[in-house]
User: Fold this.
Amino acid sequence: MKKVTLLSPGPTPVPQRVLLAMAQPLIHHRAPDFAGIFQKVRDGLKMVYETKSEVLVYSSSGTGAMESAVVNLLSPGDKAIFVNGGKFGERWGSLLRAYGCQPLEIKVPWGYAADPAQAAALLAQDPSIKAVYVQALETSTGVEHPVEELARVCRKSNALLVVDAVSCLAATRLPMDAWGIDVMVGGSQKALMLPPGLAFVGIGPRALPVMKESRLPKFYFSWDKEIKNQRENKGAFTSAVSMFFGLIDVFEMLREYGMDKVYAETALRARAFGAAMEAWGLKSYARQNPSPALTAVECPSGIDGEAVVKWLRGKYGIFIAGGQDEAKGRIFRVAHMGYITEFDTLQAVSAIEMALHGLGYDFNMGSGVAAAQQVFGED
Amino acid sequence: MKKVTLLSPGPTPVPQRVLLAMAQPLIHHRAPDFAGIFQKVRDGLKMVYETKSEVLVYSSSGTGAMESAVVNLLSPGDKAIFVNGGKFGERWGSLLRAYGCQPLEIKVPWGYAADPAQAAALLAQDPSIKAVYVQALETSTGVEHPVEELARVCRKSNALLVVDAVSCLAATRLPMDAWGIDVMVGGSQKALMLPPGLAFVGIGPRALPVMKESRLPKFYFSWDKEIKNQRENKGAFTSAVSMFFGLIDVFEMLREYGMDKVYAETALRARAFGAAMEAWGLKSYARQNPSPALTAVECPSGIDGEAVVKWLRGKYGIFIAGGQDEAKGRIFRVAHMGYITEFDTLQAVSAIEMALHGLGYDFNMGSGVAAAQQVFGED
Assistant:
């Protein structure tokens, strides 16, 4: 029998104690008992976001919370910059267009990071631009965009910085208040070690007056409604009670372990995996700012990325991800974030070695495992 | 120690086998293995909906799927009738207003059912009316609206019938195709015996061309996007994998047991509870069409409904629901749907007797339990 090993950049493995916490008998979401749970969830989110502002919880995928960051800030015809460096950057553009806003695209080649100077120039040219939408980690390429610098640029203008941090929240540090991020979107199924189903949105002080002026229609994703309710520790609509049970357990684990250690170990796994990749003679698809949360490996010529993914799933029950759109077949992606240990990473390295070997790539079997062990051993 | 006993009209108790099914290790939502699971979920939904049409799954609360039934059918300024007989009827109105449509209200006093003739008259007067929005069960009052008759009325006009069946799907029979319901919304946390987090929307053949003409903005809740994806057994966005695990287990249970038996036993529990209520000398708040899914009990004068709710929760760990808005304090609500047995109902009856007694209501202790047992014993 195969063990399911989840090493895709979301969903990530859920610790058994969290799965069991979610298997507790449900209570009613309007009962006072649930308010205490809601409060703990809010406190935990503020810890991870490093913010004093409200972080709202939605029952939705991350895309729902992204949509909330459009419909609660803009009005029809409003101009907004979006960074398009991959599949998820594209999604900001689709959202802006779907709601009749004017998207100004900063097109970045896949595998590269946005240049803050380009945003600064656009903002200087046109002070009517309302916001800049960007990914902290573009999941499709493994690239981190320079969020801290973009925040600095936005604070010199009228524009808000809206960051999609779904795929790296709790994997890499994103101190919302210290960096001056105005709005930050997160999801449950990545480094927060939960199943998919919850999304989060932190709303900073510069975003609140903008929200009040927004005239795009909204109901389920209305921030105003949720802020009023969630400040009183309840959702405007039925909360996903079981996920809340799991989430307070996750925050307990993160607190006990310490966020610094979580970030350091995520980075260590990424370094170890990177050393293996180098030993194979392969390169990261991310030419700039590769994220520690996941590595997108560029396949050797003649090897199909999808075949590597299939090999791992079919032969070993290991789930990694392939490439999307223009990167399809050219890369495979392995996560280092969340409930993953050095031995999970070594297992990934080992499985990939066997797959590459089986698919006919010429390299020294075992060289990647040795290189990764070397990094872990030095820690 | 108290046992948690959930007898509120959602969330309802989740069977332990379902909780454990949801506690399985996650797999990747884009892996071929997940497509088989998605297919089973689609088949199960079609069984419960009694439809050949597509039933979409959303990660959201029921309100999200309600919103989808507005933004995918209407355009700005469109006229739509909504039946307002309680808290959830009101929500249709709020949704229509939030999206700049023209809501035509059929106001029904709380505790009463809509009159189909009123809808027929409005539709005859104005053929530009696009849809009629109604609840199958108005959860706040325990009243069933006459969905079958309303469907007949709508089919004689251009208007679609959109039914919010969140709180009674799988508790009372709602054969979408046989009755000619155009759109029907459901949720996971009621008679489908799952935690909150998933919502469903069945889309009949008359709704599809209307959807194509709709110009309200949408993205996360776009039917078009989801129909394309879900027909290929995947979500447009990340699916709530664990909930899907639970849902296929629920459908297995429902299939093994048989839907007819599920409906019959729900009705039996409601009759038994009703007999107890009568023995206490109390009345249903639903003056017309009381639903078998839940009973809203009108409190005797001098007894606060909220006090009954608190008594049960505080002394026995039993969660029932109070009244909302104008019914607050005047009623308490007990569910009969989902994973509830005759002994759960008897426990509710017994606990309410002790609460009413403790709060000073004068009646024969045990009379309700005896009356309910009588009904169960005759079955």
